[in-house]
């Protein structure tokens, strides 16, 4: 299961972030509550998807998620 991001998704995310920042607090709260409801309704599916993620060394091709660190942190560690 690979997660290659399409460059268009980054453009869409930035556009959404701008719109989100202009959205009033009550509307944002309602949107977040709807998201929470959907997550709760699909909890088993979400749990299965998260458990399927291969964690490990970010240099290993089989790893889907590794340590989240900046270049500076990497230099301190290695």
The tally of helices reads 4
Secondary structure category: mainly alpha
Overall spatial form: extended
Contiguous low-pLDDT stretches (5 residues minimum) are none
What does this structure look like?
With 78 residues, this protein is mostly helical. The protein is 62% helix and 0% strand. It contains four helices and no strands. It has helices at residues 7-21, 25-41, 43-51, 71-77. The longest helix has 17 residues, at 25-41. 0% of the residues are buried.
What tags apply to this protein structure?
mainly alpha
Ordered list of secondary-structure elements with their pairings:
Blueprint: H1 7-21, H2 25-41, H3 43-51, H4 71-77
Quickly describe the structure.
This protein has 78 residues and is an all-alpha fold. It has helices spanning 7-21, 25-41, 43-51, 71-77. The longest helix is centred in the middle third of the chain and has 17 residues, at 25-41.
